[in-house]
Specification:
alpha/beta, disordered N terminus, ATP binding, ATP-binding, D-glucose binding, Hexokinase_C, nucleotide-binding, five-stranded mixed β-sheet, 14 helices, six-stranded mixed β-sheet
């Protein structure tokens, strides 16, 4: 904290001069730069393959990227009205919102509460998970509405941010768990009956109207206030994207005979891009993360760019440099805390990159407080450069997905709504991603630094809250208009 009259900390520029770094340490830094740096040619190669994989996912035979139809079949007008609940089941928190869409264009009121998602529930019993969620909903409704027995059922948009097949908008057949979840008996099953059974047991007055993915919610919520929005992205604990496709360009839906020009929001689930390991430049550290994960061979792209993994990649590099290299960093220090898997999250790397001091004193304090390690000056430079390399690679790879959707759809100019902790909080993520997008799409250099890019990635509106409520509203509108294609599961239509 800078007090009144105190000088602000000096600004660090670049990555440091490395003047005082010994040659053996410098050699390791150069080696890490070779491993983690992705040049323009490689970005373009990855993007080309990405476009092909997006198309493959829409085909009848399918591919690694699921490209799930969501049955969200229109953008909002901005004039939707009503009161809706929104439930967001993320990897870290459970969030419950009540959103009132007003009769003023693109305006809404919101009240919300957050509940921690206990770690033991992620690998426990399915019934315990659903009953915990039902309890949180009940607590929220009782707090804001009192006696639940006197309430009519409130329509709910449920943001279920895991790969799911949807034949209807109120159905979600879990394809596989991600974000550290691994609960038996759920994969391959529709999660909605499990969720609704828990609501019924607890007497919670809720009617699930739409099951959505957070990326679809981000797309719809952002389009609610900005008609230039064409893609919704999440760069957080996991990573994903959604966009509107024409039904005529989705061969796997051809049997439904939907009008070719009808829009359909596609939840890409692009974390699974390149599970075959054809183009992504994986390092030995990426391979170790994959091998040690609950789902080896899955989510190859996500494991290189998502917040869940960035700190772990960094940790593995540090342990390797301590154990297996001649330099033996942190010599004669106990690194037991550093050996614990997933003990560092992406906020740890953020703090390192944000350290403004020339001597990296905040980074030194961070290592001492969190890991009981006291790095020397050259080791701090290595730490800083490693964090920069991992953060930069994540941002540059993320741009490949945005570029691929833009290329596939022929978007020359548009806005991309992005949400998630990495996008919103990780230093320089936006700028690094924007620079990579410019390289991939061959835009000319800006003549005016303040000039907007043709395709711009902006902070999104609240997809898992407002987006979920809007999709619930759009669903009810379609039901009321009698346009029932792919809307409600027959068992729930009443």
């Amino acid at each position: 904290m800078v007090g009144l009259g105190a000088k602000p900390p000096p600004s660090r520029k670049g990555t440091g001069s490395f003047i005082d770094v010994p040659k053996d340490l410098l050699k390791e830094i150069k080696h890490l730069e070779q491993l983690f740096t992705i040049d323009t040619a490689k970005l373009k190669e990855i993007t080309d393959h990405f476009v092909h994989e997006l198309e493959k996912g829409l085909s009848v035979e399918g591919g690694s990227i699921p490209m799930n139809p969501t049955w969200v079949m229109s953008y909002p007008t901005g004039y939707e009205t009503g009161t809706f609940l929104a439930l967001d089941m993320g990897g870290t928190n459970l969030r419950v919102c009540e959103i009132t869409l007003t009769d003023q264009k693109s305006e809404f009121d919101i009240i919300q509460s957050k509940y921690r998602m206990p770690e033991e529930l992620k690998t426990g019993d399915a019934d315990e998970l659903w009953e915990y969620i039902a309890d949180c909903l009940l607590q929220f409704i009782e707090t804001h509405h009192g006696d639940v027995t006197k309430l009519d059922k409130i329509p709910l948009g449920f943001t279920f941010s895991y790969p799911a097949t949807q034949n209807y908008i109120d159905e979600g057949i879990l394809q596989r768990w991600t974000k550290g979840f691994d609960i038996d008996g759920v994969e391959g099953h529709n999660v909605v009956p499990m969720f609704e059974a828990a609501l019924q047991r607890r007497g919670v007055p809720i009617k699930l109207t739409a099951l959505i993915n957070d990326t679809t919610g981000t797309l719809i919520a952002s389009a609610y206030t900005d008609t230039s929005m064409k893609i919704g992205c999440i760069f957080g604990t996991g990573c994903n994207a959604a966009y509107m496709e024409d039904c005529g360009s989705i061969p796997k839906l051809a049997h439904l005979n939907l009008p070719p020009e009808t829009p359909m929001a596609i939840n890409c689930e692009w974390g699974a891009f390149d599970n075959e390991h054809k183009v992504l430049p994986r390092t030995p550290y990426d391979e170790q993360i994959d091998n040690d994960s609950p789902r080896p061979g899955q989510q190859a792209f996500e494991k290189m760019i998502a917040g869940l993994y960035l700190g772990e990649i960094f940790r593995l590099v540090m342990v390797d440099l301590h154990d297996n290299r001649e330099i033996n960093i942190f010599a004669n220090q106990d690194i037991e805390k550093l050996r614990r898997p997933y003990t560092l999250d992406s906020s740890f790397l953020s703090s390192i990159e944000e350290d403004p001091y020339e001597n990296l004193s905040e980074t030194a304090d961070l290592f001492q407080n969190k890991l009981n390690i006291s790095p020397n000056g050259p080791e701090l430079e290595l730490i800083r450069r490693t964090a920069e390399l991992i953060g930069t690679r994540a941002a540059r790879l993320s741009a490949c997905g945005v570029a691929a959707i833009s290329r596939k759809k022929g978007f020359k100019e548009c806005h991309v709504g992005a949400d998630g902790s990495v996008f919103n909080k990780y230093p320089h993520f936006k700028e690094r991603g924007a620079a990579a997008l410019r390289e991939i799409l061959d835009w000319p250099e800006k003549t005016n630094p303040k000039e907007d890019d043709p395709i711009e990635i902006l902070a999104a509106e609240d997809g898992s809250g407002v987006g979920a409520a809007l999709i619930a509203a759009l669903t009810l509108q379609r039901v009321q208009s009698g346009n029932m294609h792919g809307i409600l599961h027959p068992e729930n239509f009443r």
